[in-house]
Design goal:
Elements lengths: L1 H28 L4 H18 L2 H7 L4 H25 L1 H23 L1
Helix pairs in contact: 1-2, 1-5, 2-4, 4-5
Length: about 110
């Protein structure tokens, strides 16, 4: 259920709301250059997405500076991929990709790592 709610909830909040809002703001700042506006929004939202995954990481391990950078970087890379999917293919694609990633990372990887 966590993968399902993250796939829908986080994508609605991060991509549909925040990325769209920031893209509109950046469109005004960058004189209607859609590519620069979209990439700026994707990267900023990806960093926020990565940072918001620090509290769940802290529940599993003690957060050292290296682990903080790792968590933000890995989740940020996923955030960039999800942002690109949203931009190029739509919200549903980002939701499905997020759901499947969560299923694989949180659901199947423990089976193979134990």
């Amino acid at each position: 259920m966590g993968a399902f709610s993250a796939g829908i909830g986080e994508e609605l909040l991060m991509r549909f709301f925040l990325m769209t809002l920031l893209t509109l703001i950046f469109l005004k700042l960058f004189r209607k250059n859609h590519t620069i506006a979209a990439w700026s929004a994707i990267i900023l939202v990806a960093l926020i997405f990565g940072a918001l995954h620090l509290p769940p990481t802290a529940e599993l391990v003690e957060l050292t500076p290296l682990l903080k950078v790792r968590a933000i970087l890995l989740n940020g890379i996923a955030g960039i991929a999800l942002g690109l999917l949203y931009w190029k293919r739509g919200l549903e694609s980002a939701m499905v990709a997020h759901f499947l990633t969560d299923v694989i990372v949180h659901g199947l990887s423990p089976v193979f790592l134990s």
